[in-house]
## 1
Amino acid sequence: MIGAPREAQAGQQQGKELMTGAADDIIALYRRQGPAWAAARNRRLYERGWLDRFATLARPGATLLDIGCGAGDPIARYLRDKGHPVTGVDAAPEMLALFRENLPDATAEQADMRGLDLGRAFGGLIAWDSFFHLAPGDQRGMFPVFRIHAEPGAPLLFTSGPSGGEAIGTLAGEPLYHASLDPDEYRDLLDANGFYVVDHVPEDPACTGHTVWLARRRGD
């Protein structure tokens, strides 16, 4: 029993190191495994209900910014087919190559979403299953990024966890990092950056258990 606290501390340290390493490896992981994931990705479009609400809030024909766009199929393709040009942003060039192949007429930008500054605002922003791979501090830093890229009235759609914390999943057998802030903190960050919450559903049973946020930038 005397050694138990030291063993617990060692376990906690190993856990922190695993989290930090997995968080730092996200871009490299998607460079290695993203194309295989994209090929196997379910295209049933279980997100349709949320995407329809998001698109309805955007002004007709508005250009949308897909942050962490991946291969662009099915989400960006669906929004494009609803009459919204899409600009995709991803840090992994392998994923952008697939995006350009799937949406050859769309604009694609290679960039890390952290600190993103494209120099223009868009009629809607989406960060579906991408933003939640950032560490908590980096997530907090994304809300000013959302603000500078959102036109007044533009909707913002993103996924998170149901409560604050970090978790490790797997992608092709490799550790895959996820994190979430508490819902109240997301609400505060949205409000402080000029957005109001339209809807928030934790672990939506109609969307394979995703926790979804739909917000909208206030008019200036």
## 2
Amino acid sequence: MSETHFDPFGEPVAQAPRGEAVAPAAGSAGLMRAGTALFWLLVVGILTARVAYFDPDFAERFGSFAALSNTLQALLNG
């Protein structure tokens, strides 16, 4: 009786007759490489856009908005 092996996500792993794991198909490996390349391309693109459009005054404007919000809340409650 053969022992069933599972991957980290709980899916059964296909086994060869001698008990070795079956290698993925060439198309599957190519699709995995393409997906990985697309992921890292998006990461680099997003980081580049964040660097290019970084606004150092954003935190200061948020702080003044919070102060205005607190002032309005105090006026409405008091």
## 3
Amino acid sequence: MWGIIATWRMAVEGITEADKMLKEGADAGDAIETAIKEVEDFPFYKSVGYGGLPNEEMEVELDAAYMDGDTLDIGAVAAIKDYANPISIARRLSHEKVNCMLVGDGAEKFAHKEGFERKNMLTDRAKIHYKNRVKEVKQQEISPYSGHDTVGMVCLDTHGKMTAATSTSGLFMKRKGRVGDSPISGSGFYVDSKIGGASATGLGEDLMKGCISYEIVRLMKEGKHPQEACEIAVNDLNKELIERRGKAGDLSLIAMNNKGEWGVATNIEGFSFAVATEGQEPIVYLTKNVDGKCIHEVASQEWLDNYMKTRTAPLEEK
């Protein structure tokens, strides 16, 4: 049995490559890194990697993390600039006994010493997005922070090894140095090959309040199916945040156990995810929360076509 599941439609090309690798017996670490890099390298996905949305100072600061479910090794980078594939740097850091999470200048110095590719991650397209948002904030009372779609994945290989990984440019127009849940173990991701793994996307500040990826793995350890575990964790945190704070930010979680069974839960409309397993070709689903239960529907070809058309459409400065 093998499988890989990921947040958002933008991951389907990456998990398609990973699925081919897993069929041939590839390591879960190699497969998930390949899949994440596909997303990082595509300039039209504006919340991850190259072409990612900049912070308030128009700099692209990236966060990424990698976890090995066999050894529980973790590597992470945060607020790193000008490196092409932060996921690869995070995976390299997972081999370090100490200093396995590095931020800002420290992460960049490590990446330079290890020979990772330097690259200006701020594209002309991202600059236009930035300049348009500055005008929108002034004219329409719109939040500068809308737009924060982390790619998160969980992978199982034919040897029973599991991995989890994340990569993101974080909140659009975030403060310099801001770090969300994505590179934080237990919040943005967690995996244990004896049980399963989970990964999150949404508002990091709220996802961190529930250590929600670890909570899903804990629920799976108790015997819950990944779908039930995701629904319990998302619904409980959503309810708790509303009771205590009056509202809850976006919370969307994906999970897979060590049998290749998967689950997804969200508190928003229009959350998409992609999954591939031994018995299921790569496919994109849309999910919605109806009275605490999440219903998954296969994305229509019309929806898929419109998704790419919207993201690759020419941009003009307003």
## 4
Amino acid sequence: MKDKMTPLQRAKAKANGEAVDRLPCNPNLSNGIARISGCKISDFNKDPRALADAVIATYRRFGADGAKVFTDLFLLSEAMGAKMKMPDDDTVDLLEPAINDISEIDKIPLIDPYKDARLPIHLKAMEYVHEELKDEVPCTALIVGPFTNACFIIGVEKMTKLMIKDPESVHKLCEISLENCIRFTDAAIKTGVGISIAEPMASCTVISPKHFREYCAPYLSKYVDFVKSKLNGVSIHICGQTKAIWTDIADMGINAFSIDDIADMEDCVNTIGDRMVVTGNVDPSAVMYAGTKEEVRKAVIKSVQQGYKAKKGYGIMSGCGLPVETPIENIDVMMDTAREIGWPVTDEKLEYLLSINKYEE
């Protein structure tokens, strides 16, 4: 199935209250983009052209409503001294934090985004992507937020202990992390891209709402304020369960919030859907990676049922980044189901679409 509008045409029409062809849809491939362009994931660590070409090829292949430059959660922490595992054809992971003890905090550097670690590679990839796709689709950089980066600087386990035993040191780590987030983000914005934030360690699955408000929210809020001083808006994804902090996120003035599959879409829309766009929650593993085509189709329709009445808007999206080997045909189904639903969306149409099977398994 083919779209009748580009993502930018769709977004502009929606903003003006005009008719669109379908709801926004973003499968959220992450490093699966390497499978679309035919390169190794490790190529992204040294070649900005390979990273950009994979982002561009993925947009051309599926027609999703975003072109995102992102590889892993550790770009900033690596630039601040953390050591990485870099597999030949899999996602980069944290090997060692930047410091082993809070007494080493003065060793943490302020980064130069044009020189340090893989940051220049990503900045150049952003330039390439924006230059080629800027007239068709919103181009963004997904940047890890200040609290999550702070956790990777010293290690998650030690950070958890510090939150109980040494609050002052946690704040110092978050302040350094915030400054480096701002430095990289400022350079990213200068390439022309928009900004989306990933703050997975803010999840209520990881820390309590109390600790979120004490340690994460002050720095995330400052970061959001910085981005909004430069751009019209900003989006965020937080993994896991987030219900207890939904209103906190809305209070920061964030424009769009992506929720994980274990979060309740209907509940989220009823709670904050009048204050921000809500996206997400199609299961990336059990459905998108391991499900049949019909299971993908039904999951998308059910997510739309729960979300499409959000006053500020709703978008179809997987609840988190898709596993690398997610079947391409399942990604096609997500996009084609958005086209099948079309516009306008009604309860009756969705009930009818759920009552029929489109794919013979």
